[in-house]
Amino acid sequence: MLDKTSTRDRVDDYLNDGLGGLWVPVAVSVQVKPGASLARRVMNENLVLWRDAGGKLRCVEDFCPHRGAKLSLGEVQEGNIACRYHGVTVDGTGTVVKVPAMPDCALEGRKALTAYEVAEAGGAIFIYIPSADRPEAPEFSPPEEFVSDEWEVFPCMTHWDCNYRLSLDNAADPMHASYLHADSFTLAYGAKQDTMKLDRTDDGFVIERVNQKGVNFDWTEVVVDESTMYFRLDIPYPDGAGPGGPFRIIGFATAIDEDTHYSFFWRCRKVQGLARESWRFLYRAFLEDRHWHVLEQDRVMLESIPSDSRRREMLYQHDIGVSRLRQMMVRRAKEHFKALDAAEADASGKISA
Ligand code: FES
Ligand SMILES: [Fe+2]
Asked: Which of 67, 97, 99, 271 meets the CB 3.0–4.6 Å disulfide criterion with 105?
């Protein structure tokens, strides 16, 4: 039986590589152009994405079934992907459909690769990463802002050299804005002292400052539901920043491996019609640079944190959101291991019987 320490290490190692059983964003939609493929590393797996003949996104392991070359170096042909090395061609289910160099090759028709479910929402591509307890993809339910006509959303993706959990911790910690971003356009306001309060929701929690609302980045909602995990926060905008009320950020963090991740941010505003056009213009022309400046401050700070920092942190009251998020993720990881151990026990029982 595992002792407590090794259980903790096992859960921690698993979480550091990326929590499965979720839909995770892997690219902005425009990055997968018709007729071209895109290589991605997600949770230590090399994957390739492309659009099939009907425009449907496909994702399989980036590994040629013949001798392992990267399929992403090949070509999209009639909706399938053909390896550059000897032309072996695989379809979106991971099945070999053609071995052009060898007539009637026995590899044809063989399911050789893991294929991943793919969905598009909010201008980005999501794939489902199974876990032992959630092997089948549930229907993807994106944040409501992605599907509502009332919201205008721009996705942006960036690559940070730190563990994805640090990005999530960062979002569950509104207080950092008053310090780290104190020189920024919109995050310079408000008190530098406060107490935090946490309210649980049906699928996560809201962490907020007790004495300040609508002044700075004062609250975050964290959602870990049946299909995905993300956060939502508002940044109050001055009148000069155009129509639409606060600037809303929806964020996801997708592990590449233990030390790097993709941070995804959707910049959202509640605008329609002409106001939408003026917001798009204003954002592109003036505000986007400022937003990147703030994100850069986050990146530098998070990349400075050692990957084993959790072993010697000294948390205080403001970290109740960070703690709650970690508890929720640990619970999901334990469900994965429970299912994994049960499946292994079942398999070994069958072998010894
Ligand atoms: S390694 Fe891909 S076709 Fe040979
Ligand atoms: Fe920040």
From this structure: 99
- For ligand 1, mutation pick of 83, 98, 107, 113 (most atoms within 8 Å of CB): 83
Residue 60 pairs with which residues in a beta bridge? 48, 115
Q: What is the pTM of this model?
A: 0.94
**Dist. CA 295 → ligand 2 center (Å):** 6
Task: State which residues form the domain around 63.
Answer: 21-120
| Contact 69 CB / ligand 1 (< 6 Å) | yes
Buried b (16+ CB within 10 A) or exposed e, 157-171: beebebbbbbbbbbb
Q: In the chain, what is the straight-line distance between the N-terminal and C-terminal CA atoms, in Å?
A: 22
The CATH number for 319's domain is 3.90.380.10
Tell me the per-residue pLDDT of 207-236, one tens digit each, with 9 for 90 and over.
Answer: 999 998 888 888 999 999 999 999 999 988
Q: Is the dihedral of CA 299, 303, 308, 310 positive or negative?
A: negative
Token pair, residue 21, equals 């059983």
User: Ligand 1: which residue has its CA nearest to atom 1?
Assistant: 67
Same structural domain, 113 and 175: no
Q: Is 271 among the domain residues?
A: yes
Q: Are residues 286 and 157 in the same domain?
A: yes
Residue 93 forms part of a structural domain: yes
Tens digit of each residue's pLDDT (9 = 90 or more) over 69-79: 999 999 999 99
Total domains in the fold of the chain:
2
56 and 185 both lie in a single domain: no
| Cα–Cα distance, 222 to 220 (Å, whole number) | 6
> Is the distance from the beta carbon of residue 66 to the nearest atom of ligand 1 less than 6 Å?
yes
H/E element, 302: helix 288-303
Looking at the structure, tell me whether residues 28 and 114 fall in a common domain. yes
Summary mean pLDDT of the chain: 93
169 plus 109 within the same structural domain: no
Closest CA to 251 of 262, 240, 265: 265
d(CA 61, CA 47): 4
